[in-house]
Design brief:
The complex is a heterodimer. Chain A is mainly α. Helices cover about 70% and strands about 0% of the residues of chain A. Chain A has helices at about 15-20, 25-30, 30-55, 95-130, 135-145, 150-160, 165-195, 195-205, 210-215, 220-245, 255-265, 275-300. By secondary structure, chain B is mainly α. Chain B is built from 12 helices and 2 strands, in the order αααααααββααααα. The longest helix of chain B has about 40 residues, at about 230-270. The relative contact order of chain B is 0.14. Classes of the chains: A mainly alpha, B mainly alpha. At the A-B interface, helix 6, helix 10, helix 11 and helix 12 of A face helix 1, helix 6, helix 7, helix 10 and helix 11 of B.
């Protein structure tokens, strides 16, 4: 189990030192792949936060784009320009700059999407597990039906109904991923509900809302953390796939997946760099998230310890 | 057993009813099919007439009821773009997709099971660690990126394999297949490999986890003690018991395999169902979308059922009641 410092709030003055000395930190530091994953994620966050101020171009600003710069190859190939280290696309947009701005959109969808589906799924799971009865069976039947179909197909169908858009992507991806949270949290809640402290809380007359938030929720967070980490990767991958198929983000807000699609259209003309760099970026990003998620899964699972 | 089967069928019927309502209602919001049917200069009157003919002016429940009645009579409607019965269109495209899925499953199983067995039987060896690290890496690769890189390397740069279309095919027992044509196989390799890739990592991990679990048991030690060769211990004694979770999860994954044919078929311009679905979505060809999704739903319900039945064959101890 993680040290208790993980679940306590910041009210504890020695929290930092306790985290530093905890078993969790020791395991993390002695696991090279977890550290590598964390480094990749921190790097991606840095790219998103300070990247736009560093890169040479704002790919959305038409004034900064020059069509004469179209299809410049990356540095090291004939005809390249130092101004565009990773080359340019058909509009003369710098690939490196597009990557930075695209990564912002991909990560935004990944993180915000996971937060939304985490809140929706956890709430439904808590309610479902705590109250039981008709509401529980209704929620779980919907979950069953959804789980019997591949989520990417459901999301694809929803996006073709809604049309392109970041907000619509968030809705479609939430609609397919709340299920996992609801199921897991419901299972955990059933276990916690039977504990004496929950019964005690009920006996002293605390309202259900308080019991759920203060007594049940803190005891189901472990599963939520693991699920969420891995889910960020899944969200980015799903978004990229939908955008690649042309039903994801709008063309004016290209995410990494849409950048790959744009590049794929000119792949056969020999302009490989337009698609390959965004693709590599997605790959490394998701690999990093999976490395960290894998570590958390093993670390926070008491059965494996 | 019979009771169980009846219960499952009733459950499946309810699921399909709900799913059909949801799909039918939502699909009516996809684009405006009238735009696809008439020329841009058509007058409002012509448009109205087409709407009338397609029955689009009826209230939604009436439209659904008509659709349901037609389906019961084996009428699945006509495609707006191709002007032919949807069911014919789907049956025509089905073999291409099934063929690709089958080849990719064979590829995935042939590559993944031995690797997973090895990594599970000898988890401490360096090679096992490399297998596991690469499988996690493989799981991070988006399908479209794998397909694109394969095209870039083998089609664009090396020029060894074709990158789009289905190539020559011949009719075997009334079904058009390209697997029995040496030239057709060349067209098959890249898309099937791309699709197989999506499941490789998962299959390796599942097999390994199952093997690690089984190798601890006494009957493995006993088999070794009685002098069974290491290969037989691994593949005959251990693998058989490690396969249960593999079959379960993989059975369900066949579903997502079919979902991912939309991606591979789009990349490789493979004329199968996945490409048909994407083309129909771009063209707001509602009848095709509805029937495709409904048939997929039926397929899933059947697949889940088969997977459950397979348990009892692999492990007779499992009692479905």
């Amino acid at each position: 189990m993680p040290s208790r410092a993980e679940t306590r709030g910041p009210s504890n003055p020695s929290m930092l030192s306790r985290i530093a000395a905890s078993e969790f930190t020791r395991d993390f530091l002695s696991n090279p792949s977890a550290v590598a994953g964390a480094i990749i994620i921190v790097f991606a966050l840095l790219v998103v936060l300070i990247g736009p101020h560093v890169v040479p171009q704002n790919p959305y600003d038409l004034k900064e784009i020059n069509l004469a710069d179209a299809y410049k190859p990356p540095i090291g190939f004939a005809g390249s320009s130092l101004k565009f280290p990773l080359g340019t696309d058909n509009q003369g947009r710098d690939i490196l700059s597009s990557l930075v701005y695209g990564c912002r959109i991909s990560l935004f969808i990944g993180i915000v999407g996971v937060l939304i589906s985490c809140v929706v799924g956890t709430t439904l799971g808590l309610v479902s597990g705590y109250y039981g009865g008709k509401l529980d069976s209704l929620i779980m039947r919907i979950a069953d039906i959804e789980l019997s179909f591949p989520s990417i197909l459901i999301a694809l169908f929803m996006m073709s109904v809604f049309g392109r858009g970041i907000d619509k992507l968030l809705i479609a991806l939430t609609a397919v991923s709340w299920v996992v949270y609801a199921r897991t949290v419901r299972g955990d809640t059933l276990g916690v509900k039977a504990k004496e402290y929950v019964e005690a809380a009920r006996v002293i007359g605390l309202p259900d809302r308080i019991i759920l938030v203060r007594h049940v929720l803190p005891n189901v967070t472990t599963s939520i953390i693991v699920l969420s980490t891995l889910n960020v990767g899944g969200f980015i991958l799903a978004e990229a796939t939908l955008s690649f198929l042309g039903v994801g983000v709008p063309v004016t807000r290209p995410s990494l997946g849409l950048l790959v699609k744009n590049g794929f259209d000119v792949l056969f003309s020999g302009y490989w760099w337009v698609a390959v760099f965004p693709g590599l970026f997605i790959m490394v990003l998701i690999f990093g998230i999976n490395l960290l998620g894998d570590f958390l899964k093993d670390e926070l699972n008491p059965r494996l310890k | 057993m019979i009771n169980y089967i009846i219960k499952r069928i009733a459950h499946a019927a309810i699921v399909l009813a709900v799913v059909s309502v949801v799909i039918f209602c939502l699909t009516t919001y996809i684009g405006d099919p009238v735009n696809m049917m008439v020329s841009e200069k058509a007058s409002a009157g012509t448009r109205e007439l087409v709407r009338q003919q397609l029955g689009l002016n009826e209230p939604l429940p009436v439209q659904y009821w008509i659709f349901l009645k037609n389906v019961m009579n084996g009428q699945f409607g006509h495609s707006y773009t191709y002007k032919i019965p949807v069911i014919g269109l789907i049956l025509e495209r089905l073999p291409a997709t099934l063929e690709m899925v089958a080849v990719s499953i064979v590829l995935a199983v042939v590559i993944a099971i031995p690797l997973g067995v090895f990594a599970g039987a000898f988890p401490k060896r360096g090679i096992s660690r490399i297998i596991m690290a690469s499988s996690l890496f493989g799981a991070s690769l988006p399908t479209f990126f794998v397909g694109m890189m394969l095209i870039l390397i083998f089609a664009v740069n090396l020029g060894w394999l074709p990158s789009s279309g289905r190539g020559p095919s011949s009719v075997v027992m009334g079904v058009r297949l390209s697997i029995n044509d040496p030239a057709g196989i060349r067209y098959m390799i890249l898309p099937a490999l791309t699709l197989a890739f999506a499941n490789l990592a998962m299959l390796i991990r599942l097999t390994r986890a199952g093997m690690m679990e089984v190798m601890r048991h006494d009957f493995i030690r006993f088999a070794r003690a009685k002098g069974v060769s290491e290969r037989d211990v691994m593949f005959k004694h251990a693998l058989k018991n490690a396969l249960i979770p593999v079959v379960t999860v993989f059975g369900m994954e066949i579903g997502s395999l079919i979902a991912f044919t939309t991606v591979t078929e789009t990349i490789f311009a493979w004329p199968g169902l996945g490409k048909l679905l994407m083309d129909s979505i771009y063209a707001s060809d509602r009848p095709v979308i509805v029937v495709y999704l409904l048939l997929t739903a039926v397929l899933f319900v059947v697949l889940n059922f088969i997977v459950d039945m397979l348990y009892t064959i692999i492990d007779p101890r499992i009692d479905l009641r």
